[in-house]
Design brief:
about 70 residues, about 30% strand, Alpha-Beta Plaits, alpha+beta
């Protein structure tokens, strides 16, 4: 279950945005909702600070998706 692994997923995600973490940002939360029996939407909430963040968001999503 995602609830049991939430902090671990956030930690894995933050490994892929070290520069953002140094500026006080990074992945701050995780939420999800079930769309169907076999389908979830998982949202990583990211504080991008002063960055636009689009590229790092993709990197974070790609890095965490195998774990999720």
């Amino acid at each position: 279950m995602l609830a049991n692994k939430k902090s671990q997923i956030i930690e894995i995600a933050n490994e892929h945005c070290q520069a953002m973490l140094k500026r006080g940002g990074g992945v701050v939360d995780l939420r999800w909702r079930k769309l169907a029996e076999d389908m979830l939407v998982v949202e990583l909430l990211v504080d991008v600070q002063e960055a636009m963040g689009a590229n790092v968001i993709n990197t974070i999503a790609e890095a965490t998706s195998p774990f999720i």
